Amino acid sequence: MFPLFDSRYSYMAVHAWQRMMEGPSAVFKFMADQLDERITSPLGHEFYRDNAFQRGTAARLRLLQRLTQSYNKPAFGITQVNMKGKDITVYQETVFETAFCKLLRFRKETDAPLPRLLLIAPMAGHYATLLRDTVRDLLPYYDVYITDWMNARDVPISHGGFDMDGYIATLVRCFEFLAPDFHIMSICQSGVPALAAVSLLEARKDLQELLPTTLTMMGSPVDVRCSPTQVNAYATKYGEDWFEHMALSIVPEGFPGERRLVYPGFMQLLAFLSMNPERHQKSVSDALRHYTQGDFQGEEKISSFYAEYCSVMDLTAEFYLQTVRVVFQQALLPQGKMVSRGRLVDPKAIQKTAIFAVEGERDDICGLGQTKAALTITENLPEEQKSYLLVKEAGHYGLFNGHRFRNTVLPALRQFTSKKNGREAA
Predict the structure, then answer these.
(1) pTM of this prediction?
(2) Mean pLDDT estimate for the chain
(3) How many domains are contained in the chain?
(4) Contact criterion met (CB below 8 Å) for 135 and 401
(5) Selected residue with higher pLDDT from 12 and 48
(6) Of the four listed, 186, 238, 245, 269, which is most buried by Cβ atoms within 10 Å?
(7) Is residue 348 part of a domain?
(8) Which is higher by pLDDT, 123 or 10?
(9) What is the domain-level CATH number for residue 394?
């Protein structure tokens, strides 16, 4: 029993606090703008090059604004991509949707034929826009699609529930839309349902045409028993009843999904922040220092990251609890014991879809070996259909974002997918 706290009503309190802080946040922004030399000085910021006090005050007001403001879903904002030295227009289109997911395509204004790649975004608290730079880096080489999962608070309860089985079924519907001849790339949490979907299709001889040519898995918790991390320890420390009582809450009135039981995004954000508080404190200090010294580009780089980082979405309670139980507490998939809607999910059934496992040397979310386990449990997949890459010095986020993704992972991905299409990467 947990008599001193009931998380079911925490959402109501947090939402009330956010509404109350809208006014102060606007005031902090106004005051920071008045001290921002880039806005107020007609002579340019060089005029204030020695005014560290003004900059420092503006920086702290800007920090207060960001701590008190509400963060909505960001936009992808990808309108152009450079291909072989030429800027190509990009159009974002919704090509398929359900109540809980939109399948987006980033269509390019070009006739150049490119392999289709489905980027499967994780449903782990952040929006698919967290993969914005990943999409941008992939666009010159692939016809890119992405799963844009809905914020559970925005889905009316009349649409019913959504659990991991629903996630797997949605992926199969996306495969059906894209088939034949396409590739999939799963990030973090999405690796488990992606591998499950492929396993279920491989077991069905009448659905072989829906199989992806390749499955790339990046930092995915396939077998959390390998090199357990702080995340794994937290998930196994308590029983499911504890998570149900301490982590779930009811969406308050005013949202389309009011009265739906969810795992709120703010809970996940607090969990993320609590894992590395020293690192986040240092980032805040660095941002203040950059701004005070007039290095606005350095400050903006940090601030833009946290604007995305603080933009979180709610997960349905049933999806969250099933993920905790199946993936983190019982590790059913690598043991061949996972069941989805009455059907056994058997990775040994995979014989056609090639698998590429990618891990980061310094990943503190998904430990070494957890993703590579996918190559072990797919016993009947020929060895020449399996590939592995360990990215030196890379943390979890660096696997799919930044220079290590562009310079190390992406070339290996292109080589892997090109070979499976019967051609070498250019």
Answers:
(1) 0.89
(2) 89
(3) 1
(4) no
(5) 12
(6) 186
(7) yes
(8) 123
(9) 3.40.50.1820
